[in-house]
Each structure stands twice: as C-alpha cells, then as structure tokens.
C-alpha cells in the first residue's frame, strides 16, 4: 500500500504571486483549487518591501474560487511575519482586512504567524477550533469518491506474491468504503477511442501511514484495488469518480450549466474586460475532480451548453468553474451549476 500524505484544506495565497494549493478536490482550472468542504483556511504571506500590496490578481482569483466552492467559514493566516518589519506586517494586516471588507468573509479571524519559528501557532489552532465546526457526516448516503491521484506502487523486481493492484488517491465525499467492497470507476479508461468503465475490489485502505478497515469522508485516502496497476499508473485515472456499482450517474460528453460569467478578468492586473461567450469558443471546465476542455455550443439567457472533449461524471446541482484563455493563459472567468 502506498503512503499518501494527509493534506489539510489549506489554500496558500501570497501577495508576491508565489502561489500553491494543497487542497484535496476541483474548482479552478488555472490553479487546481480543490476542496469539497464548507470551510477552509486562507494563508497569506506578506510581501517584501519591494513587492506590491495585497491583494495581487491571483489572490483575487483564488478568493473568488473559495466563494464558488461555497466556503462559509474562513481562517486567514498571515504567514512569514518574521521576514518583514512590525510596521510592514501591520500594513499588510490592514490590507487583508480591507480586502475582505463587505464580502462573505468579513469578520474572519486573521492570525499573524511564523511557521518557521513556530510563532502564534497555538493562536492559529484556537482560531481553527473555534471558527470551523466539525462537519456533520451522513454515512447513509451512497459512497462516492473523487480520484485526484492514481498510482502503480510496484517497484522493479517485485515478485508475484508481493504484487499490488492499482492504487487510487482522493477524497471520499459521501458514505463509507470498506475492505472487500466492489466499486465502479467512471468514466474509466480510454481504449480505441472510447471510455470503458472499470470495476474493482477494495484490497486495502490507508490514511497516511495508518491502515484502515473502513474509510469515511474527510482528508485524503489511499485505496488499493485489484486493478491491473498499469491502468492506474502515472495518474491515468485522475478525474474519475468511484462509487458502488450502479449508483453513479452515467458519464456524459455534453453538459448544460446555469452559468455566471465575469465581466472582467479578476486574475490579471489589468482587470481586462471580457466579451461574451460565443459558439465555437474553446473553454476549460472543472467538473468534480475532472479538468476538461470543451467547445461552447450556445450561451443564452444564462444557460451554457458545452460539448466536452471527453466524458465526465456530472451530478445535477454540482458546481462548475469556467476558464477562458486570456493573454495566452487559462483564467478563471466564471462559474455555475450543472442542470
């Protein structure tokens, strides 16, 4: 069984444009913001004196993505306060407060910390405990899991008696998964131009280094299956959805979205004006765990119809992020819900 690191729901946004995401499930095609929870943590690193103030364009983009995701509770972590003066840290603190003023995040705690020097970590933990409630889980719902990694963990020279099946890494959204369960993986693997659904038996479950007999929603999980490992190697099954056999929506190559398209590009300094979506325009959608390109068929009265370049599992009411190519880069330019 592979070791999959536990990654908390933390989105790191640095005003000096050094950006990384360490969250588990999909929303932003540009940066892979991934989370399926209703609460998260926002970490902002104050810029050096030569850098521009907060928020930077990508900070605005990520902040918008959090709103798209339906985040309701937020803890803002002002990191690396040890690398700037007290005056600069206070200035940055005020900029953060101004950024969230009048938004859904107004009033969220802002915790200055130095992770390197372990300064104010206890205050951060206290804010997390007090602000973000433990999610209520409904284990009676059908099991469903998003695949965000897939592996072949067998090393060269592995003997047949030590051989492991393909491993899936991701987040369980609903229900329970137990050793021995029979599951299906959709849309499956591509062969001869078509996608074929896969079925598999669960041989192992692991959270970080902890072996489990059953797994429930929250955090990342590693699932060893009896699949041919060649099917799972090199993230070949990323973007798939796993469920009990017969419980998942059938994959589709066409989607209709109740869409909200931005008038400006929030992820650029220029805040460039966007024209309307037109038939034939290529866009990128984040649907569940899948990042997929497609072509606009029509966009009328807020309904966006798209022909995808490959099938995805699309759940009615699911959130979708829309990216368009602006200045030679894919930018978050809208969002919507699946119809």
List the helices and strands and how they pair.
Layout: E1 10-13, E2 20-21, E3 39-44, H1 57-68, E4 73-78, H2 86-100, E5 110-112, H3 121-131, E6 144-151, E7 167-174, E8 177-178, E9 182-191, E10 194-207, E11 210-212, E12 214-215, E13 221-225, H4 229-232, E14 241-244, E15 252-261, E16 282-287, E17 290-300, E18 303-312, E19 319-326, E20 329-338
Parallel strand pairs: 1-3, 3-4, 4-5
Antiparallel strand pairs: 1-2, 6-7, 6-14, 7-13, 8-12, 9-10, 9-14, 10-11, 10-13, 15-18, 15-20, 16-17, 16-19, 17-18, 19-20
What does this structure look like?
One of its GO terms (cellular component) is cytosol. Keywords: GTP-binding, Hydrolase, Initiation factor, Nucleotide-binding, Protein biosynthesis. Its EC number is 3.6.5.3. Mean pLDDT is about 85; it is low at about 1-40 and about 45-50. The chain has four helices and 20 strands. The strands form four sheets. Strands 6-7-13-10-9-14 form a six-stranded antiparallel beta barrel. A six-stranded antiparallel β-barrel has the order 15-18-17-16-19-20. Strands 2-1-3-4-5 form a five-stranded mixed sheet, with helices on both faces. It folds into three domains: about 10-130, Rossmann fold, CATH 3.40.50; about 145-245, Translation factors (Elongation Factor Tu (Ef-tu), domain 3, Beta Barrel); about 250-339, Elongation Factor Tu (Ef-tu), domain 3 (Beta Barrel), CATH 2.40.30.10. The protein has helices spanning about 55-70, 85-100, 120-130, 230, and strands at about 10-15, 20, 40-45, 75-80, 110, 145-150, 165-175, 175-180, 180-190, 195-205, 210, 215, 220-225, 240-245, 250-260, 280-285, 290-300, 305-310, 320-325, 330-339. It is mainly β and about 350 residues long.
